[in-house]
């Protein structure tokens, strides 16, 4: 008995020493050995000895939880906290550790409860300031998570100086169900105004590279991709729930036969029972296919990145955005802030509308979109593509397209297209589809004083053109840029600036107040 007690004391001392030195992996192993011996040890008959043993086991669970937390094993760390609190429900250090774990797991109400209990149990004047900080943080994140009301105004107004703002996970009024576009899709469950946030979610993993003004070489891309995969594998080895959720994503095969998951399983507070998907060796072939289909890059045409250094390229995996299908008439955009991805409406949505992103440039002709769709393994059948397939069979449209490729004056291209649409009685959406497809000609013509002097009276007014294209592709940063250039060149009053601010909300989302949005508009014009 005495020999066993001495062995336990030595183990506890060794574990504590490793813990203090922040040798987390070795300290976990030592604490695990100590806990196993303690539970096998004969229960002392002396009440004082029993109390000491319980205290030692409680501290061992608490310290092992802290070590696991530091290594990223959050769910295992949380289980250790639960074991410690079964022994002592008011153990301050455990309550603090559990609160931090829950905060990192985005379970804000439960974290708040932990910090409040810890505040009661803390020594007067000791840790109250730190705990009050955690309490306020939990309150703030719970509100952000519930409402999606994000305000990046101060950070934007300061030119993205300082630390990237911390955000909270948010799932808006959406659901996942079968899609007529392809497999599964995401749908609005209520009307959503343009600019409103739909999703705020943190990357499972991200890898970035500095471009240095050049495109990444093939070797650099391979290194970047390998590092990214390693990060994903490391994460899912530490979090079985994430492993299960990644398994719900498409791997590019049998889209129509895929299970439609309930969106609630992606909420932080939802526990998932362990199954065969969460155990055993990782199927690397399936994982590669999932990452190939679902990984997103920050430089996509449907994305904006808020940061000081734009000479940077990033790739990441975000779970719920992976369910958003492509359309050449998209209704949402994405905004990248640090490792967070914000999905917001780029035009007004009605309940039941499918939420769609443009995987490639919607402001280019049908043939180029078809070529780009091949690299994604999709064949878009949206109304715009179906309409343009018919229109691009017409000889005159073919001639206009050839003329543009051969360097025909852009004003002339625009004029010929507009006249052709009049003769063919193309109206409304159809007219907007073709204008969007020939955006390069329109933008060059309206930017050229020489073109406008010659063709200005024979082509559509600038405002009418912009409104027409926005109607089909939603807010787009290039439309915003040319609008700001026009305002800067010709001047504009209150109404013109309000129109620009409205378009800016469709491009960037409702993430800043009006004054900060003006700063973003200035950055947009200067970019």
TrEMBL record:
Domain of life: Eukaryota
Alphabetical list of CDD domains matching this protein: SET_SMYD
Molecular function GO labels: methyltransferase activity
Keywords: Methyltransferase, Transferase
SUPFAM superfamilies: SET domain, TPR-like
Record-annotated membrane-spanning stretches: none
Gene Ontology biological-process annotations: methylation
Name of the protein this chain belongs to: Putative histone-lysine N-methyltransferase chromatin remodeling SET family
UniProt source species: Lupinus albus (White lupine)
């Amino acid at each position: 008995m005495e020999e066993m007690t001495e062995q336990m004391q030595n183990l506890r001392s060794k574990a504590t020493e490793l813990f203090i030195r922040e040798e987390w992996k070795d300290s976990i192993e030592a604490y695990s050995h100590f806990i196993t011996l303690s539970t096998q040890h004969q229960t002392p008959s002396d009440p004082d000895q029993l109390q000491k043993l319980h205290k030692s086991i409680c501290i061992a669970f608490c310290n092992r939880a802290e070590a696991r937390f530091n290594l990223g094993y959050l769910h295992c760390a949380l289980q250790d906290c639960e074991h410690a609190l079964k022994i002592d429900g008011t153990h301050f250090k455990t309550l603090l550790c559990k609160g931090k774990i829950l905060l990192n797991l985005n379970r804000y109400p439960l974290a708040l409860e932990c910090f409040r209990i810890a505040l009661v149990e803390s020594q007067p004047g000791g840790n109250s300031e730190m705990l009050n900080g955690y309490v306020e943080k939990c309150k703030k994140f719970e509100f952000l998570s519930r409402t999606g009301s994000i305000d990046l105004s101060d950070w934007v107004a300061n030119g993205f100086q300082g630390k990237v703002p911390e955000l909270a996970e948010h799932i808006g009024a959406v659901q996942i169900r079968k899609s007529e576009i392809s497999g599964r899709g995401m749908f609005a469950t209520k009307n959503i105004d343009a600019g409103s946030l739909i999703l705020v979610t943190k990357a499972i993993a991200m890898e970035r590279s500095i471009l240095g003004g050049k495109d990444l070489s093939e070797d650099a891309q391979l290194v970047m991709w390998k590092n990214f995969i390693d990060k994903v594998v490391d994460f899912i080895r530490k979090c079985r729930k994430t492993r299960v959720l990644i398994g719900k994503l498409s791997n590019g095969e049998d889209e129509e036969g895929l299970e439609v998951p309930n969106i609630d399983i992606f909420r932080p507070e939802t526990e998932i029972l362990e199954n065969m998907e969460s155990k055993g060796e990782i199927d690397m072939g399936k994982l590669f296919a999932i990452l190939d289909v679902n990984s997103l890059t920050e430089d996509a045409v449907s994305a904006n990145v808020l940061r000081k250094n734009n000479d940077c390229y990033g790739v990441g995996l975000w779970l719920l955005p992976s369910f958003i299908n492509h359309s050449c008439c998209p209704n949402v955009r994405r905004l990248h802030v640090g490792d967070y991805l914000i999905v917001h409406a780029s035009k007004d949505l009605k309940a039941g509308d499918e939420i769609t992103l443009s995987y490639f440039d919607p402001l280019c002709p049908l043939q180029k979109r078809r070529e780009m769709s091949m690299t994604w393994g999709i064949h878009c059948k949206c109304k715009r593509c179906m309409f343009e397939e018919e229109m691009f069979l017409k000889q005159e449209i073919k001639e206009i397209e050839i003329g543009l490729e051969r360097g025909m004056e852009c004003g002339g291209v625009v004029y010929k297209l507009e006249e052709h649409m009049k003769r063919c009685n193309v109206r409304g959406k159809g007219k907007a589809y073709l204008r969007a497809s020939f955006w390069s000609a329109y933008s060059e013509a309206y930017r050229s004083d020489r073109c406008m002097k010659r063709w200005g009276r024979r082509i559509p007014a600038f405002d009418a053109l912009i409104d027409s294209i926005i109607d089909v592709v939603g807010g787009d940063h290039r439309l915003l840029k040319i609008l700001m250039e026009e305002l800067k060149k010709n001047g504009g009053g209150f109404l013109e600036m309000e129109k620009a601010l409205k378009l800016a909300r469709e491009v960037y989302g409702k993430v800043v107040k009006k004054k900060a949005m003006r700063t973003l508009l200035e950055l947009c014009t200067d970019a």
